[in-house]
Amino acid sequence: MKRTLPRPRRRTALIAVIAAILAVATAVVAVVVLNRLAADKSPFTLSTPLAFRPVLEVEYSDSCAGAELPGKERGTCYRLGEGMTVRQARQVRGEELDGEWVLLVSLAPADGAAFAELTGRLAAESDPRDQMALVVDGKIIVVAAVLDPITGGEVQLAGGWRSREDVAEHVERLTP
After folding, report:
1. In degrees rounded to 5, what are phi and psi of residue 128?
2. Distance CA 5, CA 157 (A)
3. Residue 152 carries which DSSP code?
4. pLDDT in tens, the chain (176 residues)
5. Are 107 and 86 a contacting pair, CB within 8 Å?
6. Among candidates 110, 109, 132, 111, which has minimal Cα distance to 121?
7. Distance between alpha carbon 60 and the CA centroid of its chain, in Å?
8. Cα 145 vs. chain centroid, distance in angstroms?
9. Model pTM greater than 0.85?
10. Distance between CA atoms of 159 and 77, rounded to whole angstroms?
11. 85: burial class by Cβ within 10 Å (0-12, 13-18, 19+)?
């Protein structure tokens, strides 16, 4: 003889399954809406523009000549190519990631697309032409190798900052 569950148990199990599906659907919708709200943040004008410039050549000398810019490391001079200048951002903040302080910049959509194109070109190059310098007020803030195209519109810059105060100086310098 076939045995079936009494109706109240089936109804309770069905209600529990429906409640679980609704909870998961609600969580998914909440995550999508929150991410959309963050992405819809209006860009603001940076206090000083960010210039992302490809490294063409690295020289090791006590003094930089001509169009070369000194790097953060003493005795390192960079000859830079034309890149792109970012004048607006959605967000600029410092954050600690894996024990290191980084500067995070959320780009406006048009700059995000141009940055993806620039980093895509650099990722295909060999050393030192796979490197990009961030230049602020005519000074190199950080130079980094580009391993892969950066397509998400979020730029993460590790400049060897050891504390919140070190990176906060740059955040304050960039934000109005």
Report:
1. -95, 0
2. 60
3. S
4. 566 555 566 666 666 556 556 555 555 554 444 445 445 679 999 999 999 999 999 999 989 988 899 998 889 999 999 999 999 999 999 999 988 999 999 999 999 999 999 999 999 999 999 999 999 999 999 999 999 999 999 999 988 888 899 899 989 999 98
5. yes
6. 132
7. 30
8. 14
9. no
10. 17
11. middle
Q: Which long-range contacts (CB under 8 A, 24 or more apart) does 110-114 make?
A: 111/84, 111/86, 111/153, 112/151, 112/152, 112/153, 114/84
Q: How far apart are CA 42 and CA 49, in angstroms?
A: 17
Could you tell me how many helices (H) and strands (E) the chain has, helices first?
3, 8
Task: Name residues whose C-beta falls within 8 Å of residue 58's C-beta, 6 or more positions apart in sequence.
Answer: 76, 77, 78, 79, 128, 131
pLDDT at position 176 is 86
